[in-house]
Automatic annotation (TrEMBL):
Gene3D superfamilies: 1.20.1260.10. It comes from candidate division WOR-1 bacterium RIFOXYC12_FULL_54_18. GO terms for molecular function: metal ion binding; oxidoreductase activity. InterPro entries: Ferritin-like (IPR012347), Ferritin-like_SF (IPR009078), Rr_diiron-bd_dom (IPR003251). Pfam families: Rubrerythrin. SUPFAM superfamilies: Ferritin-like (SSF47240). This is Rubrerythrin diiron-binding domain-containing protein.
Length: 149
């Protein structure tokens, strides 16, 4: 596998895990504002994933296969792979996990952008870092609301 494709595969894998997490989390959270925010972020993560797959296809000449995605053992955040039992975690705990994950995703994308030599890929990573920062701000706001209830 080309070295320049690995960060894209890592990002695709992480975005897929985030989509799964936000889908579960939105169903689990009882606070309507939190549920709406998590569903909105899930939709944005789906868009991120489509953009990353499109970029991968442009560079590799094909869409990433499940084998290629699974071959990258490094996740942006271990939390995207952490299972929080739906009945055991509070709304606040669900949001705190998401907040930590978004902060780690932002750091990954920023670092990847700084190392990237392809200007188009660099731009994608910087945009994703900015969006993950916005996600973290939104989730941080929801965490503050939930900590007061």
């Amino acid at each position: 596998m080309e070295t320049k494709l690995k960060p894209l595969l890592i990002a695709i894998k992480a975005e897929k895990k985030a989509i799964e997490y936000y889908s579960r989390a939105a169903k689990r959270v009882t606070n309507q504002q939190g549920k709406d925010a998590l569903n909105k972020i899930k939709s944005q993560e789906e868009r991120h994933c489509r953009e990353l797959i499109k970029k991968f296809k442009k560079l590799a000449g094909h869409e990433p296969t499940a084998v290629e995605i699974d071959s990258v053992g490094t996740a942006i955040s271990a939390l995207t792979e952490e299972h929080i039992p739906d009945r055991e975690a509070s709304d606040l705990e669900v949001c705190q996990v998401a907040l930590k994950d978004e902060n780690e995703a932002q750091a990954f994308y920023s670092h990847s952008a700084e190392k990237e030599t392809d200007e188009e890929t660099k731009k994608i990573f910087f945009e994703l870092a900015g969006e993950e920062r916005q996600h973290a701000e939104t989730i941080g706001h929801i965490c503050r609301i939930l900590s007061k209830s």
